[in-house]
Amino acid sequence: MSLDLQVFTKTLDDNLIPEINKQLNNFDMVVEVHPDFTFTTPTGFLPFKFKFNNPKFKVLEGKDLISGFELYKDDFSLAEKLEELNPKKGFMGKLLSKKTPEETFAPPEFEKRLANCTKEITFVWHVGDTFELRFAALTSAILTKLTDGVCCYPADDIWYDNDKIVENAYKEVKEYEDSLKEKDLKFHLFTKWE
After folding, report:
1. Quick check: is 29 in a domain?
2. Contact by Cβ (8 Å): 143, 149
3. Is 70 helix (H, G, I), strand (E, B) or coil?
């Protein structure tokens, strides 16, 4: 099973990577993003090496771990998305159909901000690794905040307010991780960068 988050931004460049990495270190762990990562050609799995400062579970103490998420980048145009949702009707279509309200891509307050966005970044995490949610949620929230972007969870059509997006993402991650028992953990030890 996999789930995804989407972030829409005006700009996206590699100057953001050190700041994202720095901010990830604010969440009770020491983190390194893969040294070859670049936003210019992101595709597939993006790994992070990390170690918890004060892990809840004894089995994680002092361990170098690896986790991450799948990352995909596409061009984005709100106008094109709206056109797909509301295709133009031909003469007969107009004549025979009832007037229906136009479909929206997002709630109006988000569409105003989406109008300036040119990139769509998708963060996909899988349940086969306990910590993929941590990295997908926190990285997407940090990227949203740094770029003044827009973030959504499309499966439930949830659009996130940027005011406390990073803090709220961490709260959700902690609630999930705290609900687990040690026997439920699925993690991978870091050996080397591949």
Report:
1. yes
2. yes
3. strand
